[in-house]
Amino acid sequence: MAARGSYAKGIAKRDEILTTALRVIAERGYRKTSLRELATAVGLSQTGLLHYFGTKEDLFIEVLRRRDEVDMDAYGVQLNHNDVIRGILDVVRHNTDVPGLMHLYTQFSAEASEETHPAHGYFQERTAFFQQTVADAIKAQQAAGELPGSLDAAHIALMLQASIDGLQSQWLMDNSLDMAAHLSRLWDALVRA
């Protein structure tokens, strides 16, 4: 019975760390957030914090996973109801409210292009999930007659993801860029072609 209690406490503490890290990184930024600050915010030492994740990189990968979960809870229902672009645009708009998380994502996605980076697998899984989810939603809209059947759903999903990632990099250099407006124009061009 004691193992269950300590296991549940461990899960709760890990959840608290991720929730706190999401908030702090979103507000302060990835580069401006130290492990010491995160540890202090959840009442742990740095060693205690890393006990739950192993390494700093593993912690940040889990922060990105949690961000994905939060975004899917908030906006994923639109994909499930086949309103592909609305859900994506809502996430893109939301990202401007959490620039620190957008920077973490952009930085790690570039670094994870190397197979040896700890986030390489995460980004491969995330890419496959995003593209499959978007392609399936496009196909459902095609089946419902809402989008032309001649569209290549997989190609559009790939183009949308590449555009989102590129627009985020551009926005981080110039936050006056309206990512959602540019993405909306791309969507219109892709589905009218």
From TrEMBL:
Coiled-coil blocks: none
Residues covered by the HTH tetR-type domain: 11-71
PROSITE patterns named in the record: HTH_TETR_2 (PS50977)
Keywords annotated in UniProt: DNA-binding, Repressor, Transcription, Transcription regulation
Keyword Lyase: no
DNA-binding region as annotated in the record: 34-53
Cross-referenced InterPro entries: BetI_C, Homeodomain-like_sf, HTH_TetR, Tet_transcr_reg_TetR-rel_C_sf
Gene3D superfamilies, per the entry: Tetracycline Repressor, domain 2 (1.10.357.10)
Protein name: AcrR family transcriptional regulator
Organism: Arthrobacter stackebrandtii
